[in-house]
Amino acid sequence: MSDASLNASQSQTGTAQPQDAGFSDFVALLKPRVMSLVVFTALVGLLAAPVGVHPVVGFTAILFIAIGGGASGALNMWWDADIDRIMKRTRKRPIPSGRITEGEAFGFGIALSAISVIMLGLATNMVAAGLLAFTIFFYVVIYSMWLKRWTPQNIVIGGAAGAFPPMIGWAAATGGVSIESVLMFALIFMWTPPHFWALALFMKSDYDEAGVPMLTSTHGRRVTRNHILAYTVLLVPVSFALLATSIGGPAYLIAAVALNALFLRGAWRIWRRDETAAEADHYRVEKKVFKHSLYYLFGLFTAILIDASLRGMGVIADGGLMPLAGWGI
């Protein structure tokens, strides 16, 4: 999922002075922007599942999935405190600004990780709890501690961490994994690289200064533009594959056609641009595509939710492309 922000923080000099941590500082450790996407996609996975859950159980499941996602964010900030002090967009985070110590962040993250996994298991099932535990491990250990600073494929492989929430939500309802939840995972997994690389094009200096081997730093912006277009093209068939499953429906078809067309257009515009033009308008196109990529994911998962609601009301029938017949599509 993304911990990116388009608003660059102001530069700070010297060593941050210790301050008393407030409630809002611990909330900031949880990366609430990222958590909101985790909550939404997990909720869609839960509600799109063919097995209904009691509202209290559903609320509890989403709550602890959110806490687990926040725990991952806190542990990521603990590990990345050194580079967060260097990067402009992260200097005001609680640890580099001195509002929370690294030890406090670590303890907070570990405690929330344990609570979220145990409580999700008790509230739903061990499959969902196991997936949540693996997600936290993957994001903190595999991505943050290893991939992020080792390979320019960090975003490609590490994107799996942000792709698990709908699978966890589905498992919380059904007790297992299916082709539907795997394809929701694949949708986010394939979306993550072009989304983050669009950001990296206009935040390249941040990654350079921090020594993070983002593709823009190791292979240059031209190669990154090529990769954005290639991964966006590969994303299209993955997104349409959901139409062949039980959660595909007319709303998703409309959203997939429109949003893929817009995303492909944005990737094509990024690919055609040279650095002179990009620098002249301060990477206006790249920033726009990055912003629109968020709408892309939100729009597709909203469409899944709409189709699930229509199916629950009996407006459309179950089963992939079959519901389209009743709509004259």
Tell me what you see in this structure.
By secondary structure, this protein is mostly helical. The chain is 71% helix and 0% strand. The protein contains 16 helices and no strands. It is flat, with a radius of gyration of 20 Å. Mean pLDDT is 88; it is low at 1-17 and 322-329.
Main β sheet profile = none
Mean pLDDT: 88
Order of helices and strands: HHHHHHHHHHHHHHHH
Number of helices: 16
List the main descriptive attributes of the protein structure presented here:
mainly alpha, 0% strand, disordered N terminus
The gist of it:
By secondary structure, this protein is mainly alpha-helical. It is 71% helix and 0% strand.
Please write out the topology.
Elements: H1 23-29, H2 32-48, H3 55-79, H4 81-84, H5 102-123, H6 126-150, H7 154-158, H8 160-163, H9 165-174, H10 179-202, H11 204-210, H12 215-218, H13 221-241, H14 250-272, H15 275-280, H16 284-312
Helix pairs in contact: 2-3, 2-9, 2-16, 3-5, 3-6, 3-9, 5-6, 6-9, 9-10, 10-13, 10-16, 13-14, 14-16
